[in-house]
Amino acid sequence: MVASSRGILTMGLCLGGVVLLVGPSLGQQQDGSIRKAAGQSSSEPPTPVAPIIGTVDVEYVFKNYDKVKVANKEFNTAMLARKNDLMKIMSEAQQEAELMQKFNPGSEDYKKHETRVTELKARHEAGREQAEREFALRQAESMATLYKEIQAMVARIAQWRKMNYVVKISNQPISGTDPNSVMGAISSTMVYADPRNDITNDVVHNLNKFYHATASPTPKASGRTPAAGAGSPASGANADGN
């Protein structure tokens, strides 16, 4: 038997009443379970910590961190060496191709050089693909290591300055002649930041100080101050990074 529209409406209203009655009970149970999971023994919510926000230009830090410059130089040197090796293979293939043209197609000498050209081309292509994978992985690993070092220094500077949040910004000047700078500024989530809370130069200063202190076998001979203790950034860090 087909139910009437009035019957369906009545059933719907009844189910709605059940939801209204059960809803608050489930909400109270969920709220209680969340507080318990968070380790709150009291029914009162925890007191929020007042946000103290700092800013850092990560792109600027990467460009001015001396260890990044050294890593990039080593990376480019290794990549150039591999490129030269591959060029030697192609040069040999070109020589074989020139020798091949001196013989009649189909002759034994022609086939010999043709086979050699094919082998060299395959070797070059395999080497190129391997180099691309190898250097892509090497670059990713290097960038991950460097970013973790920058992130750790940002945390140390932030804790030293009693900050509990640090957000990324770009201090790149906006120029009407550079569309990229304009679009970058428009797409940025940060419209204004007090420069007094910017820790970019502090981060660069301490990263470079620690890097040279640990990279040099005789840091005292260079006139640099050894790295400060792990509990605070190096003394002398200031807004201009000197």
Q: Main β-sheet, in a few words?
A: 2 strands, parallel
Which structural class should the secondary elements be placed in? mainly alpha
What's the total count of β strands? 2
Question: Which of globular, elongated, flat, extended, rod-shaped describes the shape?
Answer: elongated
Query: What is the quaternary state of this protein?
Result: single chain
- Computed over alpha carbons, the radius of gyration is 33 Å
Q: Report the span from N to C terminus.
A: 88 Å
In short:
This protein is mostly helical and 242 residues long. The protein contains six helices and two strands; from the N terminus they run αβαααβαα. It has one domain (53-222).
Strands, helices and their partners?
Layout: H1 5-37, E1 53-56, H2 58-64, H3 66-100, H4 108-160, E2 165-168, H5 179-187, H6 200-215
Parallel strand pairs: 1-2
Helix pairs in contact: 2-6, 3-4, 4-6
Question: Which features would summarize this protein structure in a list?
Answer:
63% helix, two-stranded parallel ribbon, disordered C terminus, mainly alpha, 6 helices, 242 residues, 2 strands
Overall description:
The chain has 242 residues and is mainly alpha-helical. It has one domain (53-222). Helix content is 63%, strand content 3%. It contains 6 helices and 2 strands, in the order αβαααβαα. It has a two-stranded parallel ribbon with strand order 1-2.
